[in-house]
């Protein structure tokens, strides 16, 4: 199976029928919500916070952030702002009347919020898209650097970000995490079910040198 | 888009990053919509110190909304004194009446008293007042970001990145 990010840029790949497929597939929904819960536990937010969701898609993660749950979202409900490059995905989110604000935006172009805006950020299965450049003037390194610099600035001190992504290989894993470190983040890579088909990679980022205890 | 979100938004262009003129973006031809949202008192308390009050005041003026006070409310103005607080003599307590319903629900709410009208007003302007259609204009470069059905388009053509 070819990886979607190798065939087309995400705004073209997630056209209307792909968006609907992605959002209605219960297997994908299940994995996505599992990963969101994992990311939330790594963020360990204690009270209702302002969260940036990078690559929010149809709002699957957002719906979890918006719902208080003593077990899985004890600090919630949170208020979130979502960015996505696919207007078809955002159209599905709009239909579902999700509670977060939605932006049609390319995280590889930066994060358009003033310094210290967010308590935390979350990104599920999106960052690998930044590793392919769609034109010759944009290098993957340039896009990753604009994204992480923007993300770093938009988080308040002591803030955290958790990005689950699907690195193509070790080289890409390294490229992503070192771009985050260059932007100023404290960074750790966490792997669930390593070496299996369902391996999941989480990049856990801290602002202001906070210790990772996750 | 909630007015809260607009209070944190800047122009996306790299050239505008270093100037103070790129914040706040000014709405043009804005069509507002009130979207009811659950009151989340602890969120309001958390976010209030980060709100640029002057920008919010100007925004409300521009949109023809009721005038906000010159300074942001103090945190103490957000909650009525807690009836269970032993430092307040019980005869000085004014029961918040109907406003007190929902008291004690949810975790972490026990420490605070009932949300005041000030807090509810903030909730209404920040989280329930939204821009449904219109444009957001950068004060530095003049770029206008379109808002359609509440979704702002921040995709930049590559020559503007
Ligand atoms: Zn600008």
Euclidean distance between termini CA atoms of chain A = 33 Å
Hetero groups in this structure are:
zinc ion
Computed over alpha carbons, the radius of gyration of chain B is 19 Å
Helical element count of chain B?
A: 4
**CATH arch. level architecture of chain B:** Single Sheet
Indicate the low-confidence ranges of chain A by residue numbers. Answer: none
Mean pLDDT of chain A: 90
Number of domains of chain B: 1
Widest sheet of chain A: strand order?
3-2-1-4-5-7-6
N/C terminus separation of chain B: 23 Å
Strand order of the largest sheet of chain B: 1-2-3-4
Largest sheet entry of chain A: 7 strands, mixed
- Biggest interface and which pair forms it? A-B, 35 and 35 residues
Order of helices and strands of chain B: HEHHHEEE
Envelope shape of chain A: globular
Largest sheet of chain B: 4 strands, antiparallel
Radius of gyration of chain A: 16 Å
Mean pLDDT of chain B, to the nearest integer, reads 87
Low-confidence stretches of chain B: 92-109
Give a topology summary.
The complex is a heterodimer of chains A (214) and B (161).
Chain A: H1 4-7, H2 10-13, H3 16-24, H4 26-43, E1 50-54, H5 60-65, E2 79-84, H6 87-95, E3 101-104, E4 118-124, H7 140-154, E5 155-165, H8 170-182, E6 186-192, E7 200-206
Parallel strand pairs in A: 1-2, 1-4, 2-3, 4-5
Antiparallel strand pairs in A: 5-7, 6-7
Helix pairs in contact in A: 7-8
Chain B: H1 3-6, E1 26-34, H2 41-47, H3 53-62, H4 117-128, E2 129-137, E3 144-148, E4 151-153
Bound molecules: zinc ion.
């Amino acid at each position: 199976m070819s990886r979607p990010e190798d065939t087309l840029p995400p705004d073209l790949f997630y056209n209307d029928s792909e968006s609907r497929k992605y959002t209605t597939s219960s297997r994908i929904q299940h994995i996505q919500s599992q990963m969101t819960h994992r990311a939330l536990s790594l963020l360990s937010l204690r009270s209702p916070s302002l969260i940036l969701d990078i690559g929010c898609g149809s709002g699957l993660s957002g719906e979890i952030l918006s719902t208080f749950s003593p077990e899985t979202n004890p600090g919630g409900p949170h208020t979130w702002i979502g960015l996505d490059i696919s207007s078809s995905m955002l159209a599905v989110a709009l239909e579902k009347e999700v509670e977060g604000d939605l932006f049609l935006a390319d995280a590889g172009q930066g994060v358009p919020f003033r310094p210290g805006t967010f308590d935390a950020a979350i990104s599920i299965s999106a960052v690998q898209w930044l590793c392919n450049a769609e034109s010759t003037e944009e290098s993957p390194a340039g896009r990753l650097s604009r994204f992480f610099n923007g993300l770093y600035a938009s988080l308040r001190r002591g803030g955290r970000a958790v990005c689950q992504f699907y690195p193509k290989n070790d080289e890409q894993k390294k490229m992503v995490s070192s771009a985050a470190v260059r932007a100023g983040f404290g960074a750790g890579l966490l792997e669930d079910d390593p070496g299996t088909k369902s391996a999941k990679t989480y990049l856990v980022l801290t602002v202001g040198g906070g210790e990772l205890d996750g | 888009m909630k007015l809260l979100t607009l209070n944190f938004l800047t122009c996306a262009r790299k050239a505008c990053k270093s100037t103070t003129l790129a914040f706040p973006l000014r709405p043009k031809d804005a069509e507002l919509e009130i979207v009811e949202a659950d009151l989340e008192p602890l969120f309001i308390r958390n976010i209030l110190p980060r709100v640029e009050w002057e920008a919010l005041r100007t925004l409300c003026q521009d949109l023809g909304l009721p005038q906000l006070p010159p300074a942001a409310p103090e945190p103490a103005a957000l909650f009525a004194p807690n009836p269970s607080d032993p430092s307040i003599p019980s005869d000085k307590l004014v029961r918040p009446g109907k406003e007190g319903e929902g008291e004690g629900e949810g975790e972490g709410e026990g420490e605070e008293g009932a949300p005041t009208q000030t807090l509810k007003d903030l909730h209404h302007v920040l989280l329930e007042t939204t821009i449904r259609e219109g444009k957001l204009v950068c004060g530095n470069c003049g770029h206008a970001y379109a808002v359609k059905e509440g979704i702002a388009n921040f995709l930049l053509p590559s020559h503007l990145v």
